[in-house]
Write a structure and sequence with these properties.
This protein is α+β, with helices and mostly antiparallel strands. 18% of the residues lie in helices and 46% in strands. It has six helices and 27 strands. It is rod-shaped. The termini are far apart.
């Protein structure tokens, strides 16, 4: 049968090539092993029967057998550790010693190689096989036709070639020589080799062992992703942000046998999400998706992270103010002296703008105009020592409400009061204050105050008051205290004092950015004939 004859000729050619290659390899070198190591003496099995002689130099190789960390296949190799010199040669064994320094001490099982020697065989074996091979090759050469010569050249060219190269060469020969009697056989061999490759790739197909899919992450923070795989040569993570058309490919780095990982940089982690899928690559380089896919990726929800705020640096202030006002031409019967100090903290422009707490001492004498000026009665003493708590709430940076609660002690016991103001403008710049005050046992006043900040180092304040203090209420006969030491009750003014007006001007000077001192002057009166001057001052420190 033609097919059987072609296959026989093909394998005969393969046999001839193999015999020639074996003979050439035998002529080129001989290999053996270290049998025993005794001190500096190394006993090897390359001896007289293999053509060795005293003085020959052997290459010494350390065999290596390990499991590949990626593919899992067993890898066999060797590396050179030095040379040996034969000292004593017998028929089966020889004694050698190191030729110079060795990379590592020799061990039993190390490989030794003798180059350029032809092994000595027995008379019945040595000449027969090479001569037969050469005779067969010569006889074959004389009988080869063109097709046989072409196949012979093909196999000569494929010595040491890998499987893929052989498949391509076989298929190329079939395509170039479709009518050759060897083409069907080579075509079958190519198909068989392809099936062998496919079978091998199926056996080493990379598989995913474990993977914890991240569901959420923090915006602007890097994310580490890792997985465990089997029979994988590598892993690749593909990511895509909203608005990106193509995926960005990031190779995952080996973390150990079967483990791969990668850290996505912070700039990739942006709100609202990140799409991804993962591929594994096998030893052949082919990739397959094992986590989601390009058409249906997984999503990582990326949450915004609040930015850290700087530590709060609230403005604080301490201030002390004293104010003296004479209402009746320095006669001493209608006088107010008030001293007040406070500590305050400023928070923000809008919302709770500031909080203040302080104390005050209010002392005065007064009475009604008729009893003081016409009847000549003694003025009565009025006093209140108090503390207060005040808060300012900003509706906008230029509009706020100020409320104050007051509680203290007067001559008759516990007394209280309140203030309420509206500020138009910012407290840090020029602003207008409108409001009023009510103090138990002392009276009430309406206040208008303009603060000018046109000059940074010279703050200026203008203030007007409409008030009936200090004798703003009728006195109780049981508790009244005359201003004059020997005045009787019937000689003391008990009626409520009349309403008057005050005009105050205050000019400050900023010694340092934190420290400001101010002086004030005033004029107040209840009538054209019942009026007088006033003065005062203030010290303010802020930080």
């Amino acid at each position: 049968m033609p097919g059987v004859h072609s296959r026989a000729v093909l394998f005969a050619l393969l046999g001839v090539i193999f015999l020639e290659r074996a003979a050439a390899a035998q002529a080129e070198s001989s290999e053996g092993y270290v049998v025993k190591v005794d001190g500096d003496d190394v006993i090897v099995d390359i001896a007289g029967k293999k053509g060795a002689a005293e003085g020959d130099v052997l290459e010494l190789w350390r065999p290596l057998k390990l499991k590949h960390p990626v593919s899992g296949r067993i890898v066999v190799d060797r590396f050179s550790i030095g040379r040996l010199v034969l000292k004593e040669v017998r028929s089966e064994l020889a004694l050698a010693r190191a030729d110079g320094d060795l990379e590592q001490p020799p061990l039993a099982g190390d490989v030794v190689v003798l180059h350029g020697k032809i092994a000595q065989s027995t008379p019945e074996q040595a000449p027969r096989r090479p001569e037969r091979a050469r005779a067969s090759h010569a006889s074959a050469s004389t009988r080869m036709d063109e097709a046989e010569l072409a196949v012979t050249k093909l196999f000569e060219a494929l010595r040491g070639a890998d499987v893929v190269t052989r498949i391509r060469a076989y298929e190329g020969f079939v395509h170039a020589h479709p009518s050759s009697r060897f083409s069907p056989t080579l075509h079958e061999e190519a198909l068989a080799l392809r099936r062998l490759l496919e079978l091998g790739s199926e056996r080493t197909r990379p598989e995913l062992v474990s993977f914890a899919a991240p569901e959420s992450a923090a915006s602007g923070m890097s994310l580490s992703v890792a997985l465990e795989a089997r029979d994988a040569a590598g892993a690749v993570l593909h990511t895509r942000r909203p608005g990106e058309v193509a995926y960005r490919t990031t190779p995952m780095q080996p973390l150990g046998p079967g483990y791969f990982g990668v850290t996505l940089p912070a700039e990739r982690m942006q709100h609202p999400e990140l799409e991804y899928f993962v591929e594994l690559t096998g030893a052949s380089g082919a990739a397959r998706s094992v986590v989601a896919g390009a058409g249906h990726p997984n999503q990582i929800e990326i949450e915004r992270v609040p930015l850290p705020l700087p530590p709060l640096a609230h403005e604080s202030v301490v201030s002390v103010l004293t104010d003296y006002a004479d209402w009746n031409r320095l006669r001493g019967n209608d006088v107010v002296w008030q001293t007040e100090g406070y500590f305050g903290v400023r928070f923000a422009d809008v919302g709770l703008r500031a909080g203040r707490t302080g104390f005050g001492v209010y002392r005065g004498v007064g009475g009604s105009l008729d009893e003081l000026d016409r009847e000549g009665k003694s003025a009565r003493r009025v006093g209140l020592t108090y503390g207060y708590l005040e808060g300012e709430y900003g509706f906008t940076p230029s509009a706020s409400l100020i409320a104050r609660g007051v509680i203290g002690l007067d001559d008759s016991g516990v007394a209280g009061g309140a203030q309420l103001h509206v500020r138009i403008g910012s407290d840090r710049s020029t602003n207008l204050l409108l409001g009023g005050e009510m103090l138990g046992g002392i009276g009430a006043r309406l206040i208008t105050q303009l603060e000018l900040s046109s000059w940074q180092r010279v703050p200026i304040l203008f203030r007007t008051e409409v008030t009936n203090q200090p004798a703003g209420t009728r006195a109780d006969e049981d508790d009244v205290r005359p201003d004059e030491p020997h005045a009787a009750l019937q000689d003391t003014s008990l009626l409520r004092g009349e309403v008057g007006a005050r005009a105050i001007a205050q000019v400050g000077y900023r010694l340092w950015p934190e420290l400001t001192i101010a002086a004030r002057g005033s004029y107040q009166g209840r009538t054209i004939n019942h009026a007088g001057p006033g003065f005062g001052g203030a010290v303010t420190y802020s930080w």
